[in-house]
From TrEMBL:
This is Vitamin B12 import ATP-binding protein BtuD. InterPro entries: AAA+_ATPase, ABC_transporter-like_ATP-bd, ABC_transporter-like_CS, ABC_transporter_ATP-binding, P-loop_NTPase. It holds the Pfam family ABC_tran. Gene3D superfamilies: P-loop containing nucleotide triphosphate hydrolases (3.40.50.300). The keyword Transport applies. Keywords: ATP-binding, Nucleotide-binding, Transport. Residues 4-257 form the ABC transporter domain. One of its GO terms (molecular function) is ATP binding. The keyword Nucleotide-binding applies.
Length: 340
């Protein structure tokens, strides 16, 4: 059975409409008006044990609201959610023992006590057996490089140190599911790498299911076998990254390595279906972007080979970042493009 089951999940907020100016404020006091905002709109998906899934969408798409329903903080307006056999908002305590949560912007650690004592408190709160606790501390501190600041008070940690400590704390009780909201936000490349390695290791060792929201596409490419994309509360795509690229992007880039001096044409190559063209004389390379539905890479290559000496060439599919940006911008694809 799938570890996460979400069926037609919906959350509608009623939020006050605020009047403008002093008169509006007085009017609001007498007659408060509300508008409805459907933050999550009939979303359905299932996630299997051990999957690492990227839950993506632009700002305000409904990601945090979905996660809050999965962790049991919010009660859905309609639809169903079941996590490891439990309805989160009805069985909050049981659900909490099975999950780990990290919100990149907010820490769950106790500000004034050292990291090591926070971990001891976690052991007590989650009733973690001593042998498991020791094993996890050894493994996690090693992979995340926490030893150097184990005895430092949380408020004195840098952002990267604090995030590593947060991750460690969230995983000490061996949760079967981990929700990560922007876990690498604001971190340098070295710490990002450590965190990604850690997540992959825990996932491989323990079959931990990971649901990750991030705006960092390199997180997605390094970690996620599958992505779910939402926009305006609706699911737009559910599948693997390669499928995302092939279904949603027809753009490719061809890079030609040519002789510096011999490039001899006027640059008018739109008839080849090329949409973007740049020549870099310092490296002797030509970058050509085209829509593969309208252009033939072989014809482009042949055309250039007739006019200059081409030493080498490569073809690159669109970067996932570009594909996702295009999907975010194209809100009309919302329902039409939904893929299960
Ligand atoms: N408690 C609330 N009351 C009213 N509206 C809310 C509430 N929480 C969220 N919303 C609205 O629901 C929509 C979705 O918000 P949500 O925080 O889920 O988006 P998000 O995808 O997590 O965005 P971001 O990437 O910016 O964190 C937004 O329009 C937001 O203003």
């Amino acid at each position: 059975m799938s570890i996460i089951q979400v069926d037609q999940l919906t959350k509608t907020f009623h939020r006050p409409i605020r009047g403008t100016g002093a008169l509006g404020a007085i009017r609001d006091l007498i007659n408060r008006r509300y508008e409805e905002k459907t933050a999550v709109d009939r979303i359905s998906f299932t996630i299997e044990r051990g999957e690492i899934v990227g839950y993506l969408g632009p700002n305000g798409a409904g990601k945090s609201t979905s996660i809050k329903m999965l962790v049991g903080i919010l009660v859905p307006t309609s639809g169903e959610v079941r996590v490891d056999g439990v309805i989160p908002y009805k069985n909050r305590k049981e659900n909490a023992s099975k999950i780990g949560v990290v919100f990149g912007q907010r820490s769950q650690l106790w500000w004034d006590i050292p990291v090591s004592e926070t971990f001891e408190l976690m052991k007590y709160m989650y009733n973690i057996p001593t042998a498991d606790f020791k094993r996890n501390i050894e493994l996690f501190t090693d992979v995340l490089g926490i030893q150097d600041f184990m005895h430092v008070a949380v408020r004195q940690l840098s952002l990267g140190q604090r995030m590593r400590a947060d991750l460690c704390a969230a995983l000490l009780h061996n949760p079967s599911i981990v929700y990560l909201d922007e876990p690498t936000i604001g971190l340098d490349v070295v710490v990002k790498k450590k965190i990604r390695e850690f997540l992959l290791e825990v996932n491989a060792l323990r079959q931990t299911t990971i649901l990750l929201t991030t705006h960092d596409m390199s997180d997605v490419e390094k970690l996620c076998s599958r992505v779910i994309i939402i926009n305006n509360g609706r699911k737009m795509f559910d599948g693997d990254l390669e499928r995302l690229k092939s279904d949603y992007s027809a753009d490719e880039t061809m890079i030609l390595h040519v002789d510096h001096d011999e490039i001899g044409f006027d640059g008018n190559i739109s008839h080849l279906g090329v949409t973007d063209f740049t020549y870099h004389p310092e490296s002797g390379s030509i970058l050509l972007r085209y829509d593969k539905r309208h252009a033939k890479p072989a014809s482009i290559l042949a055309w250039f080979m007739e006019r200059t000496v081409v030493h080498d060439f490569e073809i690159k599919p669109a970067e996932v970042e570009d594909v996702i940006r295009d999907i975010y911008q194209d809100s009309t694809s919302c329902e039409l493009g939904e893929v299960q």
